[in-house]
Amino acid sequence: MAISGQDLAVRTAEDYRAFAVEARGRSPQYEELARAVAGDAALLDFLTALPTAKRQPNLLFAAARYLLGEPPDLAALHALVSNRGDELAGTMLARRTQTNEPARCATLLPALAMLPQPLAIVEVGASAGLTLLADKYSYDYAGHEVAGTDPDAPVLACQPRGPVPLPARVPEVAWRAGLDLNPLDVTSDDDVRWLQCLIWPGETGRQERLAAAIETARRDPPPLHQGDLLTDLPGLVSEAPRDATLVIYHSAVLGYVRRADRARFAETVQRLGAVWLSNEGPGVLPGTGIPGCDPHGFVLAKDTEPIALTESHGNWVEWLP
Fold it and tell me: At what angle do helices 41-48 and 74-94 cross, to 10 degrees?
């Protein structure tokens, strides 16, 4: 049965109110803007004319920022929809929410370091490949320091909670590759600008960290391959060296994939004989809905078994007993 325009507007408004809750304490500007959009008929009409996957708050706000050169407020968003609505819609249709937060490497590092070395790593939903460089960054876990292989790479700070198995050194990466529907190029100023637009105003340090990670990637760009996680992963994995531990991982990717396709992806990964590290929202994968955990944080699972809770942008990692 077809969904009415009114029902679509109600659902879209609910999504924007949920985003406002997520933005609370992180980005007051986007929290206020998301609540305003949820109650604005003209903006909801604009959004409901787009495909479901293109109505996301992150995508709307980043696309508006990309066109305006600064984060939008409600008046600027209204003017953009009224005067340049086709251009805004075109940007949203062409772009994706490909946030590439390098600090997520700090939450993945303990799990990677525990595996038999060296590693052959494949990241699904790699964006610009900044989280393919876990061995190049340095780390500070509340005073426990781990040096990376690139002395000019940024130091990623992460607060450890619980019995985190803090590594003495970064993992040895013998081979790496990223897979993405639309890989971003760290040497492209336009792609870099899009990554910058995805960062929420008010989040201290993220723009600086992104810039430093991009410079790291530009010194030795990670291999990125355009492809679909459901059909192209086996072919990419077949290129990995056989004498290294194969690791497939992803962060904040499967939430954008239909539930049935998540199950297909899980079956694919499990057939490939790899160690599987997923860093996704609670319950995105079956068995990862941890009671009482932050609904806006992530659950780090190894082969679908939860091993840690993580802050979505890598600020802390809490190891599970």
Answer: 0
